[in-house]
Each structure stands twice: as C-alpha cells, then as structure tokens.
C-alpha cells in the first residue's frame, strides 16, 4: 500500500461521468489500483481488494478518495450560472509530480515563452505586482489583482487584451482560474485543473471549463485547451527535481512566484507531501 499521508483523505478526479460504462475502467490513485464503473445507473469506485470507495459526481467528473475525507468536495458556484457552457476537456497524462502540474498552472511568467502569441508574447513579459493570501476561513490559496497581456485570451477572442486573472487553489491537486470573459464583460470565464495523482511522478490531468461563449464549436473549445496543456506538458516532464521542493532554499523565487510560494507553504502546513520533496538534496 502506498503512503499518502494527509493526502489520502482528499478527493480526486478519476474519470469523466459521461464516459462511464458498466464494464468500467481500471486506473490508479496514489499508487493503488482502482476500478471506476457505472453500477445501477450511478458511479462506483472500488480499490484493488474490491472495497467500495466514497464517490462524488460533480463538475462532469467522478471523484473518490482512498481515505476518509473530513469535508465535502469544493464547489465552483459559477458552474451553476445559466448560460455557461460546461466543457469536459478530456484527460492528458503527464510524467510529473501532481503538485508540479498544479504549480505550473499557477505560473503566469511562462506564458510568453511556452504559449507564444496565444497566452503571451514578447516583449510583454513582465508580471505586475499582484496579491496572494491563504484564506483561513475557506482554507484555500488565492491570488488576486493579476493582470497580463495576452494576444489571444480565449478561443473566441480577437486581438490582444490585458487580461484580469484570479487563481484559487481549493485542494492539493486542484486549482481554479478566473479570467476576463471577452464576450461578457463583468463576468469571469472559469478554467479548472483537476489532477489525479497516479503515482508521485505520474498524473492524469482533467481540465474543465465553464465559459460564456455562444460562438465557438464545442470541439474547437476542447482542442484549444488541449493545445495549451500539451505545450505545458513538455515543460513539466523536464522539470528537475521531479518532486516539488517544499524547502524554500531549494529554488530561487522571484516576484512572479508569489502564488507558488504560498501554495508550497500551504502544502507543507497541512502535510500534503505526496509528490513533494521535503528536504533539499
């Protein structure tokens, strides 16, 4: 049995609800084999011994836990707003720490270099000062007042705009991005990253979106987000060390890394160390 510490009692995505079958599919969670299936019309998850695991069906995905979660899965209120298109992007397997996958999602500075002429471009490389806090009332990491110039902020965007962002880490391997919604000013587009830790150095990433976009084809929305993440994958799979260092002396942060610093501090505070490196080598 794998050791997951406090992270065993968290909720994790293990598949898309609409893809469930009675035959089921085999996958992994934190080094342990599990089976996800449709039983009696409802999602079912069992471990390698046949033990039934807890299940939540939310955001178009099946969630489970190897332990005993002390609280319900987080919510994203915007998902329930009328008029939003809910997009199950699919899955992308990445040979990296699940914590690395989340941290990369929080990083704005790489946009001009990894997502050139889409989410960023030179010479617009500066990350302006923004605010980060660990909100104790909800036990989440939030980054607000984030602004960045983007040549194409969304599939439906025409021309570059300065995009407003908010980042929210609501679970050790889940983060939600709120960004400027070009078709509907005053609202936020929502892009979430749900990460399934297969092992400490291998994960399945399930992006999910709740958008105001009546023009783009669903296939185009999915392909656009998949393209963005595939660009990230090559970077993630070459990061060293493979595990996310929680020792503040292991890597040299800059002002652009404030969210990452808060995320690592929050992980360490709770003992969320599956996929992390605690002591610098």
UniProtKB/TrEMBL annotation:
One Pfam assignment: VanA_C
Descriptive protein name: Vanillate O-demethylase oxygenase-like C-terminal catalytic domain-containing protein
Keyword field contains Transport: no
Keywords: Oxidoreductase
Species per Swiss-Prot/TrEMBL record: Salipiger bermudensis (strain DSM 26914 / JCM 13377 / KCTC 12554 / HTCC2601)
One Gene Ontology MF term: oxidoreductase activity
Transmembrane regions: none
All residue ranges annotated as the Vanillate O-demethylase oxygenase-like C-terminal catalytic domain in the record: 94-269
């Amino acid at each position: 049995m794998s050791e997951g510490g406090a992270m065993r009692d968290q909720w994790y995505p293990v598949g898309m609800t609409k893809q469930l079958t009675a035959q089921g599919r085999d996958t992994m969670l934190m080094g342990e084999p599990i089976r996800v299936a449709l039983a009696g019309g409802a999602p079912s998850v069992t471990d390698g011994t046949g033990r039934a695991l807890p299940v939540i069906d939310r955001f178009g995905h099946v969630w489970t836990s190897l332990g005993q979660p002390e609280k319900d899965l987080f919510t994203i209120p915007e998902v329930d707003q009328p008029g939003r298109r809910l997009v199950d992007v699919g899955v992308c397997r990445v040979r990296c720490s699940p914590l690395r996958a989340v941290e990369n999602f929080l990083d704005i500075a790489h946009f001009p270099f990894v997502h050139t002429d889409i989410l960023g471009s030179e010479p617009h490389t500066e990350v302006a000062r923004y605010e980060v806090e660990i909100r104790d009332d909800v036990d989440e990491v939030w980054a607000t007042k984030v602004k960045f110039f983007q040549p194409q902020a969304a599939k439906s965007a025409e021309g570059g705009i300065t995009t407003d962002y908010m980042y929210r880490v609501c679970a050790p391997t889940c983060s939600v991005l709120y960004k400027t919604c070009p078709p509907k000013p005053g609202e936020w587009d929502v892009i979430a990253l749900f990460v399934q830790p297969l092992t400490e150095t291998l994960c399945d990433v399930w992006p999910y979106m709740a958008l105001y976009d009546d023009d783009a084809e669903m296939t185009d929305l999915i392909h656009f987000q998949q393209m963005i993440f595939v660009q990230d994958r090559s970077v993630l799979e070459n990061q060293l060390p493979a595990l996310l260092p929680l020792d503040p002396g292991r890597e040299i942060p800059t002002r652009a890394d404030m969210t990452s610093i808060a995320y690592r501090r929050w992980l360490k505070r709770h003992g969320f160390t599956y996929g992390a490196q605690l002591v610098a080598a």
